[in-house]
Design a protein that fits this description.
Helix 2 packs antiparallel against helix 3, helix 3 runs parallel beside helix 7 and helix 7 packs antiparallel against helix 8. The longest helix is centred in the last third of the chain and has 35 residues. This protein has ten helices and five strands, in the order E-E-E-H-H-E-H-H-H-E-H-H-H-H-H. It has a single domain, classed as Rhopdopsin 7-helix transmembrane proteins, CATH 1.20.1070. The chain has 317 residues and is mainly α. A hairpin with a 4-residue loop joins strand 1 and strand 2.
Length: 317
């Protein structure tokens, strides 16, 4: 434990992540599971980005946002899982204060960005289905770029605020974090400073960053489902409803777990429960996104086949 002592205060130099410390058995199994999920997530999202970039027919607003989501998910899972794998492998779950701050900033930035991006994607589908004639005017290239940039800017501003507030606190009683990565609630729970401002800011900003986009997304999908059901083409709307339900499953999984983490008092923090929730929004959701949003899509699958056949032909096979 690295803590510097002075006459009147102590300064934490590093933190200890307790997420896997009490796990006596099954670390090898967890290592394999997390490594497998990370590999699936990384390769699946990288494949989607490659296909969207190289295939001209996929240069549309929907696939532009899907490409952004895939890039975000690669960054997202890379913030937490490599460190978790290292902790499982070496059994030395230490992280410096600067490393913890960097991990917290990236995690919160990506969580916020994904929330706004999922809401933007729901709005895109709403305009495509409810206003097909004016869709190209409503969702032109410039507007798509502005919406994507706005999602990233909001996420970065949110992370800057919370990271600054969190690491202005004093950590003088303990340097053990009851989690397997640095996050706001477990850090607030070990601070010896007054955290009322942090908790109030977390709840207030959480409503804007988490709850508002979530409700907007739900309302958008409700209008989409209403439009689909009002169309009398039963053969078509069965598939569309299935797609919407798949999208909503991922949306509820992501928003539900992230809102539960950030929009609640830190006094209700629980190691076992919050570890499970952490796995949901930091590992499982980024892994499911390419499977739900893209790899089940016929256009994406045909573009992948075309890309593979072109590459095979160019190699002389």
């Amino acid at each position: 434990m690295r803590i510097l002592y002075s006459e009147n205060r102590t300064t934490v130099m590093e933190f200890v992540l307790l997420g896997f410390v009490n796990l006596k058995q099954g670390k090898s199994f967890l290592f394999i599971i997390f490594l497998t999920l990370y590999t699936i997530c990384f390769l699946g999202n990288a494949l989607i980005i490659t296909v969207v970039v190289l295939n001209q027919s996929l240069h549309t607003p929907m696939y532009f946002f899907l490409g952004n989501l895939s890039f975000l998910d690669i960054c997202y899972i890379s913030v937490t899982v490599p460190k978790m794998l290292a902790d499982l492998w070496t059994e030395t779950p230490h992280i410096s204060v600067m490393g913890c701050a960097a991990q917290l900033f990236c995690l919160v930035a990506l969580v916020g960005t994904e929330g706004f991006l999922l809401a933007t994607m729901a709005a895109d589908r709403y305009f495509a289905i409810r206003h097909p004639l004016g869709y190209t005017r409503l969702m032109n290239k410039q507007i798509c770029l502005q919406l994507a940039a706005m999602s990233w800017i909001c996420g970065l501003l949110n992370a800057s605020l919370h990271t600054t507030l969190t690491f202005r606190l004093s950590f003088c009683q303990s340097n053990t974090i009851s989690h397997f990565f640095c996050d706001i609630p477990p850090l607030l729970s070990i601070s010896c400073s007054d955290t009322s401002v942090n908790e109030g800011t977390l709840l207030t900003v959480g409503v804007f960053v988490g709850l508002s986009p979530f409700l907007f997304t739900l309302v958008s999908y409700a209008f989409i489902l209403h439009t689909i059901l009002s169309q009398r083409q039963k053969g078509k709307h069965h598939k569309a409803i299935s797609t919407c339900i798949s999208h909503l499953t991922v949306v509820i999984l992501f928003y539900g777990s992230s809102i539960f983490t950030y929009v609640r008092p830190t006094s209700s923090y629980s190691l076992e429960r919050d570890q499970l929730v952490g796995v949901l929004y930091s590992i499982l959701t980024p892994t499911l996104n390419p499977l739900i949003y893209s790899l089940r899509n016929k256009e994406v699958k045909s573009a992948m086949k075309k890309l593979m056949s072109d590459r095979t032909f160019s190699l002389g096979f």
